[in-house]
Structure formats: structure tokens, C-alpha cells
Amino acid sequence: MGTASASANPVRHTSAHVVTVHNHRFLVDCGEGCQMSLQQCGIPFSWIDNILISHLHGDHLFGIFGLLSTMAMQGRTAPLYIYAPAGFKVMLDFFYDQFADGVKYDINFRPLEMKGKEQIIQMRSLTVSAFPLNHRVPTFGFLFEEKAPLRNIRKELIERDNLTLTEIGALKRGEDVRRGRKKLKAEDYTYIPYIPRRLAYCCDTAPFKQLPEWIAGADLVYHDSTYADDYEDHARKYCHSTSRMAAQTAKDAGARQLILGHFSARYKDLQPMLAQARELFPDTYLAEEQHKYEIPLNRMN
Ligand SMILES: [Zn+2]
Ligand SMILES: [Zn+2]
């Protein structure tokens, strides 16, 4: 929904992203204009039950109160969960005091205060972890991890060995099955249909030692790329990253793909920034507004 850094401009909105895992949709950051972008993308607000705010800089946050108000005007009753740094509580209290007359839904605030990587959301099909980043204020990154799917049965073996429904159920859960003295091993009769996918969100941040470990093996990394090489000094001064720094982190993490975002408005042409990242990490792409990126399934059969 938004790929710009500090200030919105006619071409780019400030940070906001929708992450869809199976039927769950998460709003990650909520910069100004997020409501409009969601509507332009045909994403109903009722689909969003969890909002994750990385840090309390306006470019990641200024859209949330408008969104909360519109949700109320639309008659929302389903509870909403907001994960944000602890300081967000004061802002939410102010919103409740001043603007919450028509709010008929519960807003459940979960403060992010961890010093390392911690799981914050656990659902049937996925988990979400948060971890601290290296920015000027308390900032958190997020790792979305799909859970391992149920194993698939090798169909040709059902008939060969006359497997019963009970046996098939157990094998699919990964349990071995006893038949007298013989043991049917789940790993022989089943296979994992696909490898669970992982998405890491790292914005805003300067590089730091633990980051590649915390996002190791991610299929897709969305990373702060505020500057190109020419403003490396700014990246260091303001605790952001250049595209090359983002690429180094993705490389060290053994990631599969990298998406650069949070671009400074000073860059009209982002191609040099992309080229610099690709020198280190070829599978790098520029984030585009209102564009959908899909992590392909890595099927095992
Ligand atoms: Zn920012
Ligand atoms: Zn920031």
C-alpha cells in the first residue's frame, strides 16, 4: 500500500502493507493514505483483524486513526488486535477519549517490548514473531511463518497395502502404524506437499549482527532501502539502510528473494539502487505501489 519513506508524494504513499497467509490478512504499518490504497486494491477493511505497527514514526502510523474511525462507521463489531511499541497506548487512549463515540468493536492492544525474537501470534496455519530492529526509536520487525501442512498420502500405496481410513489418518498426521509385527512408517507412506513459507519484514532499520540470524532462510525479505550508495552517510546517521546493506542482510540470511522499499523521495530513478543491491543479491526487486507479490509454493511431489 505504500513504499515511500518519511514523506508521502504523488507517486508513493508512506509505509503500509497487507500480508495474506491462507485466509488471514495482516496490515503491517499504516501510513497516511492507507485507507484509500486498500479501497483501490479492493481489500475490504473487514478482512483485517490484526494490525502490526513497526514503530511510532508518523510515516508508519498516521493512517491508523482514520482507518479505525472508518471501521466504526462501517459498523464493525469484530474485535481488532493491534501490535505496536508500548508508547502507542497513549495515542490509542487519546483516540478513545476524543473520537471513539461510534466505536462498537474491541480494540485489543498488545505492546511490543521484547529484547529478542518472540512469537506474538499463533494461529492454526501460521505464526508471527516480532524482533527488535536497529532504528532511532524502539522498532520491531516481523516474521510470518506458515506452519507445516498435513502430510499427503502416497495414493498408489493405499490400494497396494489396503490401508484403512484410520491408518491413513494416522499416517497423514505423521504417526507410524502397527500391523502385527510390521510397522508402516509415516515417512514411507506420505510426503510433505510443500515446504512452509516465510516472510520477513525489516523496516525501518540499519544493519545489525543478529538480524540475518532472526530471519534466516526467509523466502521473501521486505527491507528498508531508504538510500542508494550516494547517501550511505545518511543511512548510518539516521539508522536506515542503503539497498546494498539490505542485500547484504538478505544474503547473510540465506534468503531467497529481497524486496526493497521505504524509498527516499530524493530518488526519481530507482534503477541505480536496484543495480547496487543486485551486485550482492541478484534476486532483488523494487517494491511497487499496489502490487501483489506471491511467494510460490515449493511443491514436494
Ligand atoms: Zn519510516
Ligand atoms: Zn522510522
Q: What order do the helices and strands come in, and which of them pair?
A:
Elements: E1 16-21, E2 24-30, H1 34-40, E3 48-52, H2 64-73, E4 80-85, H3 88-99, E5 107-112, E6 118-122, E7 126-132, E8 140-146, E9 152-153, H4 155-160, H5 165-172, E10 177-179, E11 182-184, H6 186-189, E12 190-191, E13 198-202, H7 211-214, E14 220-224, H8 232-237, H9 243-253, E15 257-261, H10 271-280, E16 284-286
Helix pairs in contact: 9-10
What is the CATH class designation of the largest domain? Answer: Alpha Beta
Q: What is the SS-derived class?
A: alpha/beta
Tell me what portion of residues adopts beta-strand conformation: 25-35%
Mean pLDDT: 95
User: Helix and strand succession?
Assistant: EEHEHEHEEEEEHHEEHEEHEHHEHE
Q: What is the domain total for the residues? A: 2
Based on the structure given, which CATH architecture of the largest domain is correct?
A: 4-Layer Sandwich
Bound molecule kinds, no repeats: zinc ion
Termini separation = 35 Å
Number of strands: 16
